[in-house]
Design goal:
This protein has 295 residues and is of the alpha+beta class. It is 39% helix and 18% strand. The strands form two sheets. Strands 4, 5, 6, 7, 8 and 9 form a six-stranded mixed sheet that branches. Strands 1-2-3 form a three-stranded antiparallel sheet, with no helix packed on it.
Amino acid sequence: KKRANLGNESYHTFTSQGGLTMESKDSFDDYRMPDAMWEKIKALLPVYKMGRFGGRPRKNLRSVADAIFYRLRTGCQWKAIPTCLAPGSTAHSYFQEWVKRGVFSSLWEIALELYDELVGLDWRWQSVDGAMTKSPLGGEMTGKNPTDRGKLGTKRSMITEAAGIPTGLAVGGANVHDIRLLRSTLVDALMRARGFESEVREHLCMDKGYDSAWVRSMVENIYDYIPHIRSRGEEKKPNRKSRERARRWVVERTHSWINRFRAILVRWDKKIQNHVAGLHLACAYITFKRAGVFG
């Protein structure tokens, strides 16, 4: 027999008589949690003891983590998770528990510490911007999206360091102005930046949506940033010095990385804590990946 590989999911087998048969070969390797990431999250999980009266053996936690990551990457329903990973109800139950324990938020903090150790967080030029996503089922912190015919949506506000590594975020309804989420975003970033040393004056790049005297005063006097508010057109003006690069685009690129996780691109979680936990897990993955720990 001559075998032709036609992809990861399946392959065809050609016989000498010209017949064609299909052999299925299920593979979810591209959607499993990387080993290096699992080792970090495993250290954050509680110790699960056997029940006093026995019962079913506990599900393999690595498979549960893979199932949660699979759902985040694909955006499928919990019950649509392949059973070879974990039953959807089991994965959802563990996910809810880990959200309450703050596992995914702690994982993001560990990722930032590792990135700072291996590469180095660059706090000199930081950027902040918001992005809106659909929320068909509604739920907490959703609102009518003015750019999507009033359909329900969610807005996330994110701040990144100079290389685009996410360091803080806040979530609100799609009808909430970016300025109203700015303070929460900066507070979250400061909480995650505790313990990191920065000996330089930090700059904060924003677009014209943040242009107001109140924002400039708050950013400069309360949070000790040097504010830079320029429109996208101004950043592309030819009179900008050749050695000076546009800096605000890195946060827009990070938003596009986040949108590759389809459970975030379209929010199906009604509970805001579940949606935020998914954002934390995605930020942790991006930070680990940019640190080079996945090989």
